[in-house]
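Memo to structure team: turn this sequence into structure tokens by end of day. - J.P.
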Amino acid sequence: MFLDRIVEELSQGNRIELRDFGVFEVKKRAARKARNPRTGEEAFVPAKNVVVFKVGKLMKESVNNSTNNNSNTPHSSSTDIPPHSPAQSSTKSPSQTPAKKQ
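Reply from structure team:
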């Protein structure tokens, strides 16, 4: 399968370029100190590899042109995904959680 091949190549450290669409590559994220937002306790986050994607020029231009041209017309496709609203979210991100008083 196509996606399995992409995952396989990325796991070997290879860069994947899909012309005019974008580039997938693996970058090393350095180890760092972090803080638990609830308890304030300091934690160590080890170094890890992350997959990054950079949008290709043609795709970026196409998306920007299509959204600019259609910004005043409603979309009625059955595949449209409704916009995310924080009120609809069942989980709270750390920035939405009130800070604990000490």
